[in-house]
Amino acid sequence: MATTSAAAGLLGRQLKQMQSDKDIPGISCGLADNNIFEWEVMLMINDDCKFYGGGFFRARLSFPPEYPLLPPKMKFETPIFHPNIYPSGEVCISILHPPEDDKYGYESAAERWSPVQSPETILISVISMLSSPNDESPANVDAAKMWREDPKGFRRKCQKLVRESLGDE
């Protein structure tokens, strides 16, 4: 129980910091269901991102009671098509993988979660990932294949999702 209350205290401080920090443009966070372990996140993607620029994407961060020793899970609630996001919306990015050696030898332990990460570093990494997909170990094989073989089609599909995220379709 002490771990859970320590995690809750840390998450409360991190949420307050992110809500008052004006240096992180395009990220808005709040509690989901009044639960400190469930955050609602809104990512407003700037126009520099050629795939998702101008989009508003809702996601959820779900923190385990062992946080910050173990990473949260992140899941997009707004539909998104990306090589590193499962069709279910769950994000697959190195820093959200538990801090252990990768049994497949793809990632080093240094690339994975560590307690120095924070919700802010996760969200900044996810925004960066949206601009630069890693198609070497895709979570969404169809998206990775389209990104490699039909970049214009990939971009059109992403821009359609951006319009839908704005309620334009």
From TrEMBL:
Name by which UniProt lists this protein: Ubiquitin-conjugating enzyme E2 2
PANTHER family (alphabetical): UBIQUITIN-CONJUGATING ENZYME E2
Superkingdom assignment: Eukaryota
Entry annotated with the keyword Plastid: no
Residues in UBC core domain copies: 6-167
Source organism per UniProt: Exophiala mesophila
Family: Belongs to the ubiquitin-conjugating enzyme family.
Catalytic residues as annotated in Swiss-Prot or TrEMBL: 92 (glycyl thioester intermediate)
Keywords of the record: ATP-binding, Nucleotide-binding, Transferase, Ubl conjugation pathway
GO MF term set: ATP binding; transferase activity
